[in-house]
Amino acid sequence: MKNIIVTIQFLFLFSLIFFTNSVKGQFNIPNKPKKIYPVNDYVGILSETQINQLNKKLIQYHKKTSTEIIISIIQDLRGEDPNYLASKWGNKWGIGKTYKNNGIIVLLSINDKKISIQNGYGIEPYVTDFSTKRIIQKITPLLKNNLYYKAIDLSIKEVFKIMKNEYENKKVKNNFHKKNWIFYFSFILLLLFFFYQKQGIEPSLFNPLFLSNMFFWNKNFDNQEENDFDEFGEGGGNFGGGGSSGGW
What are the C-alpha distances in Å from 205 to residues 190, 195, 199? Predict the structure, then answer.
């Protein structure tokens, strides 16, 4: 009878330990937002100004290269491996362009004092395990002094240097080059004048409003393009292409 009681107690203790560890290891990655911005601070260690500055820098880089770099700052890993969690996060949110898989996740866990940099498969040829390890080593002194913004900013700059604007974002832009607007405008004006003399074209086409619209349409197009933000997470994902982690 005594042996049975001891066995039951042992099984109960084993189950309790196993259950506790299982619960501890479950980190629920947030659901994919409707619009993903580069910096996601779930702890509040960055000021609003710092977040805006980092977002601006990463969005500009994204527009230039189509590469998506996400910064995720969490309180605790809850027993998860930082590399696994970062890769899983990138897959869940679909970070990186479809077919390019050019996404990068920088994950910081404040309580655990751990950081992980993970790449989509498309980034692997450029940002290697060795290079991410070097980046982490370089920013570790900043992290030790709680200089999180400077550490993140430096890590971003290092990635920019390594990538060297790979995956240039080749979007279709306005065919009229800014430096040649005088030529095109003069040519169209002469053409309209010729048809006006020969074919009797509608004189209203020469009114100031029409000409001003023709003159400024390129500028308006460019301003609109600069203000547009192609959100992150359009379906790239496919993480597991390399990366590393470290602590401070």
Answer: 13, 11, 14
